[in-house]
């Protein structure tokens, strides 16, 4: 949670209610220190560019808030730079409530929704109006070739704070285009006459049911598994994995182990995230094609060969690509017990990396992200990272073999003991 958001939102009255409800201590730390420089990262910029609508609130002269829905072709809300967004204001019902409100109070609040992905981004800023007389060149940049609606003006917003919300209580909704895409994907899935339907798959002693599916990135899906008989699930520790049965297209039943992505907590649900690799051994693609809501599995209880230390030493967490799955659980477990940690997460682009928005929202002061193929690429400097690590820190790395090898070799060169470097590879 960013300090800029906390400074704007946590007024005296809000703080009083937080105190009454017992959440004040958890949120107070977000207000400490100077306000950071607010800048939209690559992830926020991509998210904004993909929206075809948002909700905007302004304040009237009488103090009443006014919330308006704004819609247009995807990308009509444009990112001008890391601190500025803008959109073309199309001709509507000619009430001009939002525009009129901005003449007296330039503050706005935006809510951007991704219903299929169960994500929402809140933005606070100060807005001003531009038109053909004041800034014709800027107004021309805001026009969209995909829209025939007449543009009356442009609204330019200087971002002062933003924050991500958790997916809780966001009901997934899908546009007609998204529904058609899902139907086409279902129709194109291979059908095997021997594929089991209602019977449970596997011979493990833990009966599970797929109770939720979430598309985290174009190639990564998150799966929620619950006990088939609504019983409490076996406990586990951060770093643990769940071995599950998978049926291949030729009818062969195999198994794969996937890291549990959430910190140990309530015993009613396991969560895993699976990257689809079409040129691999076939397990991940078979899982993506075969696992549906209600699929029954007989799995093994969780095992842990990548355990998190339980003493007071700080942790340095390093993840590459899908290697974020056990690292995310470790970060949540460390945060829950108040332990010191840093998380460094590298991948190709924000849209290909799972949980970026969740980690940004949960641990803004603990995380750093690296995008090797983004518009403005950033790369993880392993030697510099390890050289500046605390002398007693425990280092955890998970991801591609080249990342793990780099961390281990660098640690040896710096004289870091092998037992302080823990790793897990998916290869």
UniProtKB/TrEMBL annotation:
Organism: Methylomonas rosea
InterPro entries in alphabetical order: FAD-bd_FR_type (IPR017927), FNR_nucleotide-bd (IPR039261), MRET (IPR050415), OxRdtase_FAD/NAD-bd (IPR001433), Pyridox_Oxase_N (IPR011576), Riboflavin_synthase-like_b-brl (IPR017938), Split_barrel_FMN-bd (IPR012349)
Biological classification of the source: Bacteria, Pseudomonadati, Pseudomonadota, Gammaproteobacteria, Methylococcales
Name under which the protein is recorded: Pyridoxamine 5'-phosphate oxidase family protein
Pfam annotation, one family: NAD_binding_1
Source organism, top-level taxon: Bacteria
Keyword Nucleus applies: no
Keywords: 2Fe-2S, Flavoprotein, Iron, Iron-sulfur, Metal-binding
PANTHER family (alphabetical): CARNITINE MONOOXYGENASE REDUCTASE SUBUNIT (PTHR47354:SF1), NADH OXIDOREDUCTASE HCR (PTHR47354)
Signal peptide: none
PROSITE patterns membership: FAD_FR (PS51384)
Domain FAD-binding FR-type: 203-309
């Amino acid at each position: 949670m960013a300090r800029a958001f906390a400074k704007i939102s946590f007024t005296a009255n809000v703080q009083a209610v937080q105190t009454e409800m017992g959440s004040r201590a958890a949120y107070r730390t977000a207000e400490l220190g100077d306000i950071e420089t607010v800048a939209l990262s690559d992830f926020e910029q991509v998210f904004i560019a993909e929206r075809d609508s948002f909700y905007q609130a302004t304040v009237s002269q009488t103090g009443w808030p006014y919330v308006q829905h704004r819609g247009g072709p995807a990308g009509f809300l444009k990112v001008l730079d890391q601190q500025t967004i803008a959109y073309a204001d199309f001709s509507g019902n000619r009430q001009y409530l939002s525009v009129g409100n901005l003449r007296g109070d330039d503050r706005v609040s935006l809510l951007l929704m991704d219903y299929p992905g169960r994500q929402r981004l809140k933005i606070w800023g100060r807005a001003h109006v531009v038109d053909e007389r004041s800034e014709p060149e800027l107004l021309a940049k805001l026009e969209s070739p995909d829209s025939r609606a007449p543009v009356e003006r442009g609204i330019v917003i200087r971002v002062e704070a933003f924050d991500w919300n958790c997916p809780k209580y966001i009901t997934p909704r899908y546009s007609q285009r998204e529904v058609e895409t899902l139907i086409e994907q279902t129709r194109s899935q291979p059908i095997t006459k021997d594929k089991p339907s209602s019977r449970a798959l596997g011979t493990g002693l833990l009966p599970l049911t797929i109770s939720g599916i979430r598309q985290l990135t174009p190639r990564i899906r998150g799966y929620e598994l619950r006990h088939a008989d609504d019983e409490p699930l076996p406990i586990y520790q951060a770093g643990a994995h769940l071995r599950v049965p998978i049926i291949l297209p030729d009818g062969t039943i195999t198994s794969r182990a996937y890291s549990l992505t959430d910190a140990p907590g309530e015993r009613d649900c396991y969560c895993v995230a699976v990257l689809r690799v079409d040129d691999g051994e076939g397990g991940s693609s078979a899982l993506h094609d075969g696992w549906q809501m209600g699929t029954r599995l007989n799995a093994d209880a969780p095992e842990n060969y990548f355990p998190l230390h339980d003493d007071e030493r700080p942790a340095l967490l390093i993840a590459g690509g899908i290697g974020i799955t056990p690292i995310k659980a470790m970060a949540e477990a460390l945060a829950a017990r108040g332990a010191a940690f840093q998380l460094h997460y590298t991948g190709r682009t924000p849209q290909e990396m799972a949980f970026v928005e969740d980690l940004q929202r949960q641990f803004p002061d603990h995380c750093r992200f690296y995008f090797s193929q983004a518009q403005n690429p950033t790369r993880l400097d392993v030697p510099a990272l390890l050289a500046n690590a605390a002398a007693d820190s425990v280092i955890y790395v998970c991801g591609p073999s080249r990342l793990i090898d780099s961390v281990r070799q660098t640690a040896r060169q710096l004289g870091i003991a092998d037992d302080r470097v823990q790793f897990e590879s998916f290869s």
